[in-house]
Amino acid sequence: MKIAVPADGPSLEARVQNKLGTTPYLLVVDPDDMSFEVLDGPPTSLGSGAGVQALSIVLGKGANIILVGYISPNIFKPLQKNGIEVVTSVSGSVREAVTVWLVQMPVEVSVFGTRFTLIRNGVAFFVAIPTSILIVWLSGEAP
Asked: From the CB of residue 113, how many other CB atoms can be counted at a distance below 10 Å?
């Protein structure tokens, strides 16, 4: 199994990028030993075709899971139909994203199912932002 992650740098400590087509680097990680291959992101001159080019690159390297912030529904569905697992709303470092996926996702999927797991994780992400702002505001630490 290999996991593809768009990143802002060539290391596991790099931040996960929101989109495949605009990422400077693509990391293909082997979760068994956390070894990884660094690939250059697609050329920005490709415009809207950059996302498809990035997918072609990582699938050519044997990735069967993609962890990313966002992916177009037009690309998401064909990937799933072809057995490629796509996890969106991913953030943090590449190492954190892969580790969380390895620990949390398989357990959740086996108990609740894939659809519920992905929806729950997406909702949790978007609820965490206003909750954090509210906590800072209530604590009086806001600038």
From this structure: 11
Residue 41's domain comprises 3-108
Q: What's the chain's length in residues?
A: 143
CATH number of the domain within which 56 lies: 3.30.420.130
Does 128 fall in a domain? Answer: no
Number of domains the chain contains: 1
From residue 132, alpha-carbon distances to 2, 34, 138 in Å are 33, 31, 10
Residue 65 falls within a domain, yes or no?
A: yes
In the numeric block, the tokens 């390297």 are attached to 61
User: Using CA atoms, how far apart are residues 108 and 20, in angstroms rounded to an integer?
Assistant: 25
Under a CB-based contact definition with an 8 Å cutoff, are residues 76 and 86 in contact?
yes
pTM: 0.69
Q: Which residue has the tokens 């920005």?
A: 44
- For residues 111 and 97, what is the distance between their CA atoms, to the nearest angstrom? 21
The pLDDT tens digits of the residues spanning 27-62 come to: 999 988 899 999 998 887 777 777 778 888 888 888
Looking at residue 30, what DSSP letter applies? E
